[in-house]
């Protein structure tokens, strides 16, 4: 089922997370313009650069392979000194409140946990829903970046989550 603009309408049931495909980068840039109009939305070229750098990006796809959201993380160093920085998590406004953002975050954190990396991110200080989600996943506010988002001048919290490993989480030695 699609609407008259050719995009899926309504909920699509199960969402599949998979490595973000180059063919979907124009859609990512489209979502950036929708989601972040007051700031500096990423262009398709910015996403190309992220993938060329080897950063890890996931897409959230419905049954028709329509991109509903995306998320990316950069990993640096090696355990035990590895660090990860979540660059972005975004979900089409029409598909929010369905657990897609949570699933994307968990996918990124799984990658960070493979590296046993301490993980950082920035989030708008007025984004209470995102801050609550990050806190649920072990993040704490560790700093404030004044006028971080441009050109809006919105402030950002820097949040951090300690390094974890799948061994620690599962309780299996």
Structural features, described:
With 173 residues, this protein is an alpha+beta fold. The chain has one domain (16-170): Aminopeptidase (3-Layer(aba) Sandwich), CATH 3.40.630.30. Helices cover 28% and strands 28% of the residues. It is built from five helices and seven strands. It has helices at 25-35, 44-52, 100-114, 128-136, 166-170; strands at 16-19, 56-61, 67-76, 83-91, 118-124, 140-145, 156-161. Strands 1-2-3-4-5-7-6 form a seven-stranded mixed β-sheet, with helices on both faces. The N and C termini lie far apart (48 Å). Mean pLDDT is 88; it is low at 1-12 and 167-173.
> Can you list the strand order of the major beta sheet?
1-2-3-4-5-7-6
Topology-level CATH name? Aminopeptidase
CATH class: Alpha Beta
What class do helices, strands and sheet pairing give?
alpha+beta
- The helix/strand series, from N terminus to C terminus, equals EHHEEEHEHEEH
The low-confidence parts are: 1-12, 167-173
Strand content: 25-35%
Principal-axes geometry comes out as globular
Rg calculated over all Cα atoms: 16 Å
Q: Can you give the helix content as a percent range?
A: 25-40%
| Annotation field: number of helices | 5
| Corresponding CATH superfamily | Gcn5-related N-acetyltransferase (GNAT)
């Amino acid at each position: 089922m699609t609407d008259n603009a050719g995009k899926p309408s309504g909920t699509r049931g199960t969402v599949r997370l998979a490595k973000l495909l180059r063919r979907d980068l124009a859609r990512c840039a489209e979502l950036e313009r929708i989601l972040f109009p007051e700031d500096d939305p990423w262009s398709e070229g910015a996403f190309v650069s992220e993938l060329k750098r080897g950063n890890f990006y996931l897409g959230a796809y419905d049954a028709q392979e329509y991109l509903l959201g995306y998320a990316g993380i950069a990993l640096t160093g090696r355990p035990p000194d590895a660090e990860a920085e979540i660059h972005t998590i975004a979900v089409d406004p029409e598909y929010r409140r369905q657990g897609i953002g949570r699933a994307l975050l968990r996918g990124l954190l799984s990658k960070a946990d493979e590296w046993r990396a301490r993980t950082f991110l920035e989030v708008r200080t007025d984004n209470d829903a995102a801050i609550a989600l990050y806190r649920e996943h072990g993040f704490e506010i560790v700093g404030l970046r004044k006028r971080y988002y441009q050109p809006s001048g919105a402030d950002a919290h820097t949040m951090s989550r300690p390094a974890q490993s799948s061994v620690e989480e599962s309780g299996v030695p």
